[in-house]
Amino acid sequence: MATDRSSAHGPDLNTVAGNGLVHRRMFLMAGTAAAASIASAALPNPAAADALQVEPWMKLPGSGFVGYGQPSKYEDKVVRIWNTAPGTIGTGTSRTPHHLLDGMITPNGLHFERHHSGIPDINPDTHRLLIHGLVKRPLIFTLETLARYPMESRIAFIECGGNGQLLYQKEPAQVGVQQIHGQVSCAEWTGVKLAVLLEEAGVDPKAKWILAEGADAAGMSRSIPMEKVMDDALVALYQNGEHVRPANGYPMRLLLPGYEGNMNVKWLRRIKATESPTMTKDETSKYTITLPDGKSLQFVLPQEGKSVITRPSPGFTMKEPGLYEISGLAWSGYGKINKVEVSADGGKSWAAAALQQPVLPKALTRFRMAWRWNGGPAVLQSRAIDDTGYVQPTREQMIAKRGTRTIFHSNAITAWSISDKGEVKHVYA
Amino acid sequence: MSTRNSLLIAVSALAFISAVAVAADGPNLGRVATPEEMAAWDVSIGPDGVGLPPGSGTPKQGETVYLAKCVACHGEKGAGKPNDQLVGGQGTLPGDKPPVKTVGSFWPYATTIFDYVRRAMPYNESKSLTNDEVYAVVAYILQLNGVVGENDIIDARTLPKVKMPNRDGFVTFARGK
């Protein structure tokens, strides 16, 4: 049993909020005893008599080189899960296993996906990007020509407008962070600024919007305000250093930092400058927020400030009382995360979490909070505050404003309860 | 708007002026596209109907197309199942019961149906319908929803004039409201 040092150091000095939230220095101060407790938090303690072994891999040469490396075979549970529309194998959503990851970058093979007609098998040599509409000179670009343009990199999250929709349900869905919040991921995207290409085409000042369209069989298309396009839209060719994955738009996708995932059109084939929105299927019949009075909010473009605790979260079992790190993700489509607060007592008291650097605008931000679990019931929550001062709402506040007639743009605080047996469950608190 | 944005827009505006004679700074590697080259890709149709192709269809003709290509996923007369319901649900948007969002109850523009069916449907064979077939199946869905009459002809001229029941049901979002 790990030593609980709170009595030795006096709980008052290190307590930052109710039910065991303590200052991060506890990790440093507590030394080896607490460190042992952290390491063993979710694992059975090795038996005392379990002497260190010289394992087989210490005695024989390891395996050889491979062209493209894969995770350890012991990591085979770290995978996406997905739902598909009836009668299809590739229309639907896959979700990132955030409960099994740490840091701010999502590995390419685990980035969430949303496809409207599967993943097209695009030959990069024949793929074309057309820029036309209200421009002086309509232009066609090949991948080869785009590769000669000056590029820039941008770490940005992409979040589906439907992420978190389970929070609109009447009763808390008995699933975990992957099922509830797995439609957000974050990568370093590298490519050509769309503004540069549009300037070469010569945009007519009458053009206040563009239509962006994909080369998939659904021809997924969305209208985007020209102001956003000229500000920071990127034609992304690379994702975390390698060519964008087929599932994420190979050979090129649109990146609109902070904007609704659906607008970050994958397999980008066409940009049309237009005077007004085209009113495509996805920006009218989907991705709009129907309010209690039956009216629907349209063009809800940046994703709102939001956060979620990824560890512990459902699927974890707390084995024993002691010192733990609460870890989670926060993000805002409007800018940077300024602060994340964590509560362990169902929202009665809150303390500021440590923000892992770098904290970047419109990127996932990792937060960390030290917690001494006393073995009793607890309710863990996090709330994000972005640099516009926006505070992530409670579920009650969100529903009071929006009702439950939509599935889109849910950004309420998520609560995980810990039972005295250490089980973690999704609850409304 | 930030200073940076204003600057960018100012720069863009300048670039536009100079683009008439000399294109803006950049490698200028795009090849100028001719209208003929773009025709097959220029398929998006906005509410004004600009770009709608020649052709026409009636609900009766559309029923034939629907039974051959659509009914397996969208059910008899657009009743839905296994995939999206296309017909009914009018009057269900406000209230306590879950809203039934269909083409008839929710979609604000008839042009969107043409745009979407032509580009994305039928699911397993998208872009395979002729323009006449698309007009006809749009006419059929509109007629099932009571939006057009049995004998109405849907074409490039009539489609943009169709007023959908939920045309005024949308409000542009503003943060904080």
Question: Can you characterise this structure?
Answer:
- The complex is a heterodimer of chains A (429) and B (177).
- By secondary structure, chain A is of the alpha+beta class.
- Chain A folds into 2 domains: 181 residues, Immunoglobulin-like (Sandwich); 175 residues, Oxidoreductase, molybdopterin-binding domain (Sulfite Oxidase, Chain A, domain 2).
- Chain A is built from 10 helices and 26 strands.
- In chain A, the strands form 6 sheets. In chain A, strands 1, 2, 18, 19, 22 and 23 form a 6-stranded antiparallel sheet that branches. In chain A, strands 7-6-15-10-11 form a 5-stranded mixed sheet. In chain A, strands 8, 9, 12, 13 and 14 form a 5-stranded antiparallel sheet that branches.
- Chain B is built from 6 helices and 4 strands, in the order H-E-H-E-H-H-H-H-E-E.
- A two-stranded antiparallel sheet of chain B has the order 2-3.
- The two termini of chain B are 19 Å apart.
- Classes of the chains: A alpha+beta (429), B mainly alpha (177).
Key attributes of the depicted protein:
heterodimer; A: 429 residues; alpha+beta; Immunoglobulin-like; Sulfite Oxidase, Chain A, domain 2; 5-stranded mixed sheet; 10 helices; 14% helix; globular; disordered N terminus; B: 177 residues; Cytochrome Bc1 Complex, Chain D, domain 2; 2 domains; two-stranded antiparallel sheet; 4 strands; 34% helix
Show the helix and strand layout.
The complex is a heterodimer of chains A (429) and B (177).
Chain A: H1 6-9, H2 11-14, E1 15-17, E2 21-22, H3 25-29, H4 31-39, E3 81-84, E4 92-95, E5 113-115, E6 129-133, E7 139-141, H5 143-146, E8 152-159, H6 177-181, E9 184-193, H7 194-201, E10 209-214, E11 221-225, H8 226-232, E12 234-239, E13 242-243, E14 253-255, E15 268-274, H9 281-284, E16 289-290, E17 296-298, E18 306-311, E19 322-331, E20 337-343, E21 351-352, E22 354-355, E23 365-373, E24 378-386, H10 395-402, E25 415-418, E26 424-427
Parallel strand pairs in A: 6-15
Antiparallel strand pairs in A: 1-2, 2-23, 3-4, 4-5, 6-7, 8-9, 9-12, 10-11, 10-15, 12-13, 12-14, 16-17, 18-19, 19-23, 20-21, 20-24, 22-23, 24-25, 25-26
Chain B: H1 3-19, E1 31-32, H2 35-38, E2 56-57, H3 59-69, H4 71-74, H5 110-120, H6 131-144, E3 154-155, E4 170-172
